[in-house]
Amino acid sequence: MSFPTVVVPVFNALAELDACLASLTRTLPRDVPVLIADDASSDPQVATLARAWCERSGGQARYVRREVNLGFPANCNAAFAETGDADVVLFNSDAVATPGWLAQIVRCAASDARIATITPWSNNAEICSFPRFLENNPAPAPADADRLAEAAASLPVHEYPELPTAVGFCMFVRRAALRQVGGFDAATFGRGYGEENDFCRRVAAMGWRNVLCDGAYVVHAGNASFGPLGQGPGGENLQRLLARWPDYHELVARFILADPLRPLRDRLAERLLQIERGGPQRDLFG
């Protein structure tokens, strides 16, 4: 199995980065390339932590630090350039991996060469949230998150349904799509928020697909990612997104009204109960 490069964009947030890297240590095969892209963090402990992690991880892990703070879109674009011809997964430092997550995403990508972006299930991923749609569900405890990942991976069929946009906390990006449409529009979206939504609409306009990997689950502990509704810091960026894609809100609203992921959420919940059956019944998500 050929793996993409996992890119971890970083700006401060030491505790979140520590948890993120620990989860990658636990869940990634040692031959998976990892690039930690530090956008000139002001906390010197970030570099210390990242360099030490790369040393422990062997030759497939690298740490780069920007000389000046570029903002999230430009930092990611630089990372795209630094990863050669590989597909990439942007894995935010406030995300926590579960066993098998990357293998499931790779299988999803292999199912259709026209898939440009992939987003897994998460507790906090807007349209890809589980168990409650569009909510910031509480992050499950580590053992419960692993059990949920097991449930998703063990479903007999994975559908990889279409999404109007990826959710950027954990986002596979195919290199061929990057070559065709370019990276994030840092000139328009500046410090960040809206760049991945714009990218997804650009690739969709060229015939690419943005999909959910319904076989993978990744915990999203924070609120750093820009959700598909465009709600977050930087209201001007939302207006820039809508100026370029006037039908964006309607597209997402129609998706929400139709809720095509509901049968998949129900199926995952049922599978999770099957795995839990025989033990004490409890609410894994609060």
Automatic annotation (TrEMBL):
InterPro entries in the record: Glyco_trans_2-like, Nucleotide-diphossugar_trans
Keyword Cytoplasm set for record: no
Keywords tagged on the record: Glycosyltransferase, Transferase
A molecular-function term among this protein's GO annotations: glycosyltransferase activity
Matches recorded under Pfam families: Glycos_transf_2
Keyword Transferase assigned: yes
Domain Glycosyltransferase 2-like as annotated: residue spans: 5-181
Similarity section: Belongs to the glycosyltransferase 2 family.
Protein name, as recorded: Glycosyltransferase 2-like domain-containing protein
